[in-house]
Structure formats: structure tokens, C-alpha cells
Amino acid sequence: MTRASSRRPGPPTRTERGIPEATVARLPVYLRALTGLSDSGIATASSEDLATAAGVNSAKLRKDLSYLGSYGTRGVGYDVEYLRYQIAREIGVTQDWAVVIVGIGNLGHALANYSGFGTRGFRIVALLDADPNLIGERIGDMEVRDFAELEDIVKADRVSIGVITTPAGPAQEVCDRLVAAGVTSILNFAPVVLSVPDGVDIRKVDLSIELQILAYHEQRKSGEAGLPEVPELPAMNGLTDLPSVGGGVGA
Ligand SMILES: NC(=O)c1ccc[n+]([C@@H]2O[C@H](COP(=O)([O-])OP(=O)(O)OC[C@H]3O[C@@H](n4cnc5c(N)ncnc54)[C@H](O)[C@@H]3O)[C@@H](O)[C@H]2O)c1
């Protein structure tokens, strides 16, 4: 056997349980795929079926699942319900997580109205805002409450996750208040990098970055297909006296 290269990449970052972070990031994708299979009444799935449903290759999927001690049964595949339970337990979604959302504007309203969190183990316990005009507004079966109540709510409901949907300006201050109140995980939608002390996990959601990644791929696709043709200029009836390009029109 020959050695492929003398330069080896560093070891992948691993969680305390020894599962690579990249595998952890794929577990929710497998969970969603398994939920889909289960909802369609499928009791067992081969690694190929599951990989197709999750959009990954089957060798990677088998390797990922082996970290959970799940190898499937040869010739039968994986028990969908059991694997779903194993992954949910590993991610921590078999238990109920209390979440607060801070900043109930456009995005906060949309998240508050989304019913999918509850079925995935996330209980929204409070919608908080600093605007007195919003406090008391009903959204579904909840009422917007004063951000000043944060500390009491975190203590009473044992909140560990906070979602920030305020503008960028106050986001750090909101984050500091969440952390001081005892929140140890933050999902930040505000377009700003927040600092948190050790022991607090933070994740940032930025749709424009996702769109830029898609734009990058679109650009590559149009490069492969050849550049799009320059569209013809519309007929300019009667306009014959146009200045030439770079003609330096004075101010
Ligand atoms: N990550 C993404 O992909 C994405 C997409 C859209 C919007 N955003 C961001 O999400 C945030 C919210 O957007 P939006 O359109 O809902 O804004 P918005 O102005 O409609 O709502 C912001 C809310 O935050 C509240 N607020 C302001 N300061 C506060 C404070 N100190 N404490 C508590 N509440 C406070 C305001 O009263 C308001 O209700 C913005 O930062 C925006 O840039 C992110």
C-alpha cells in the first residue's frame, strides 16, 4: 500500500463524546430525513435510502452513524424509529428546551407564529420586546412581554436558549442581559458578531450569506454553460442623438 501524502490534515474537531463536529452538524439532517420516512410509514431503511433522503453519500452516513454505535442490520438496514430516537437523544431533543425570543418585529412575529419548534422539542416560553406599543400584543396563544421581565422568566422557566431578533445596535446589550440572566445558548439573527463568555454557545443565522453562497454556485453554473448572451437593446424610436459611451457628460 502506498502512502497518499506526507501532509495530513489535522484531526477533525470533536465533541466531548468524541463525535466529530461535522458529524454533529449532520445529525439534525438525518433526524429530519428519518422523520420524513417515519411519516411515510417506512419502518426500515437501507443506508442508501437514508442517505438519499438526507442528501449525503451513504459511506459518510454509515461512518456518521457508527459514532452513535448504530450499524444497522446487514440485509435489513436501519430501524427508522430506533435510529430516530438514538439521534434525537444524542442531539438532546428528547427533552424539552425552553426558549425566549427577544425582538418581536417582523422576524420575531414570523418565528413566534411558526408551529414547528414545539414538535421538535423547543418550547417558546416568552416573546420579549422593549417597545411599550408591542407589549400585551397577542401572537397565537402568547402575549408579547416586557424585556424587563427577562431575568424572572429565565429563572422561572429554566430557559437555556435565547433567540435575538432585534436590530444590530442593541443586540450585544440584549445578548449580555440574556447571559447574565443564565441563558447559555444564543441564536443570533442580528447582522453583528456578538461576544459571549466561555461556556456560552452562539450560532448566527445570516440568510444573505446563504444567498451569496447560492450566487457563487449560480455564477459557476453560468460559467460552465457559457456566458449568457447580451440582450438586444430595445428599439429607440426617434432617439438618434445619444451621447457615446464615456462621452463625459458634464455636471
Ligand atoms: N439573519 C437573517 O437572515 C435575517 C433576515 C432578516 C432580518 N434579520 C435581522 O433580524 C433583526 C430583526 O429584523 P426585523 O425586520 O424583525 O426588525 P424589526 O425592526 O421589525 O424588529 C426589531 C424588534 O426589536 C425590538 N427591540 C429593539 N431594541 C430592543 C431591545 N433593546 N430589547 C428588546 N427588544 C428590542 C424592536 O422594538 C422591534 O420590535 C434585524 O437585526 C435584521 O437585520 C436577519
TrEMBL record:
<dbReference type="InterPro" id="IPR003781">
    <property type="entry name" value="CoA-bd"/>
</dbReference>
<keyword id="KW-0804">Transcription</keyword>
<keyword id="KW-0963">Cytoplasm</keyword>
<feature type="binding site">
    <location>
        <begin position="103"/>
        <end position="108"/>
    </location>
    <ligand>
        <name>NAD(+)</name>
    </ligand>
</feature>
<dbReference type="Pfam" id="PF06971">
    <property type="entry name" value="Put_DNA-bind_N"/>
</dbReference>
<comment type="subunit">
    <text>Homodimer.</text>
</comment>
<dbReference type="GO" id="GO:0003677">
    <property type="term" value="F:DNA binding"/>
</dbReference>
<dbReference type="InterPro" id="IPR022876">
    <property type="entry name" value="Tscrpt_rep_Rex"/>
</dbReference>
<dbReference type="InterPro" id="IPR036291">
    <property type="entry name" value="NAD(P)-bd_dom_sf"/>
</dbReference>
<dbReference type="GO" id="GO:0051775">
    <property type="term" value="P:response to redox state"/>
</dbReference>
<dbReference type="GO" id="GO:0005737">
    <property type="term" value="C:cytoplasm"/>
</dbReference>
<dbReference type="GO" id="GO:0003700">
    <property type="term" value="F:DNA-binding transcription factor activity"/>
</dbReference>
<dbReference type="GO" id="GO:0045892">
    <property type="term" value="P:negative regulation of DNA-templated transcription"/>
</dbReference>
<comment type="similarity">
    <text>Belongs to the transcriptional regulatory Rex family.</text>
</comment>
<dbReference type="InterPro" id="IPR009718">
    <property type="entry name" value="Rex_DNA-bd_C_dom"/>
</dbReference>
<feature type="DNA-binding region" description="H-T-H motif">
    <location>
        <begin position="29"/>
        <end position="68"/>
    </location>
</feature>
<dbReference type="Pfam" id="PF02629">
    <property type="entry name" value="CoA_binding"/>
</dbReference>
<keyword id="KW-0805">Transcription regulation</keyword>
<keyword id="KW-0238">DNA-binding</keyword>
<dbReference type="InterPro" id="IPR058236">
    <property type="entry name" value="Rex_actinobacterial-type"/>
</dbReference>
<comment type="function">
    <text>Modulates transcription in response to changes in cellular NADH/NAD(+) redox state.</text>
</comment>
<dbReference type="InterPro" id="IPR036388">
    <property type="entry name" value="WH-like_DNA-bd_sf"/>
</dbReference>
<keyword id="KW-0520">NAD</keyword>
<protein>
    <recommendedName>
        <fullName>Redox-sensing transcriptional repressor Rex</fullName>
    </recommendedName>
</protein>
<keyword id="KW-0678">Repressor</keyword>
<dbReference type="InterPro" id="IPR036390">
    <property type="entry name" value="WH_DNA-bd_sf"/>
</dbReference>
<feature type="domain" description="CoA-binding">
    <location>
        <begin position="92"/>
        <end position="193"/>
    </location>
</feature>
